[in-house]
Amino acid sequence: MRLWSAIAVWLLLALPLAAQQSGPQVLIVDSDRLFLETQYGRQIASDLAARTAAVQAENDAIVAALTEEERSLTQRRPGMDPAAFRIEAAAFDAKVQEVRRARDAMNGELAAEAAKARAMFEERAQAVIANLMLERGATLVMEQRNVILSVRTANITDEAIARIDQVLGQGAP
Q1: How far apart are CA 16 and CA 85, in angstroms?
Q2: How far apart are CA 122 and CA 129, in angstroms?
Q3: How far apart are CA 40 and CA 86, in angstroms?
């Protein structure tokens, strides 16, 4: 019985030591940093920021035009027949609602495109991270936000950023 106890203790001590010598079996990556700090991620963010700015500029122009139209209607109201004013006001309200629906749809499309671009980035980056995992002999890669405690060598974010830049560049297919 003592022999089995000695073997069990030896295994418990030897296995963690062997794992430490070959490097961490679980690697950690910060996916937000991958997106924000790689050339590819920055390119996606830049493209989306430019499109968002363009949509915002369109929104601002539309708001200015609608504000001017409302001001004109308000100024003309005292000299208008009440029935004619109600018709114009209802038409203006309908126009505002239609513009709002169209702008909401455009914003939704932009958000969907942003999510799709991020998913494409993650899919392509995952292949690079998988190669890093295999090179290091690891069995698992975890997201940084899910880790409570780890050794520094388990975090491969910096290396992954460099490798993604090397392999994917700015992300052109």
Answers
A1: 82
A2: 10
A3: 54
* Chain-centroid distance, C-alpha 126: 15
- Extract long-range pairs of 109-113: CB within 8 Å, 24+ residues apart: 110/48, 110/51, 110/52, 110/55, 113/48, 113/51
3-state secondary structure 36-52: HHCHHHHHHHHHHHHHH
What is the enclosing helix (H) or strand (E) of 141?
strand 140-143
What's the whole-model pTM score?
Answer: 0.73
Q: Above 70 in pLDDT, residue 120?
A: yes
Euclidean distance between CA atoms 97 and 117, whole angstroms:
30
Encoding tokens for residue 45? 């963010």
User: Does residue 22 carry a pLDDT above 70?
Assistant: no
Q: What is the pLDDT of residues 27-69, one digit of tens each?
A: 999 999 999 999 999 999 999 999 999 999 999 999 999 999 9
Is-contact 38 167, C-beta < 8 A? no
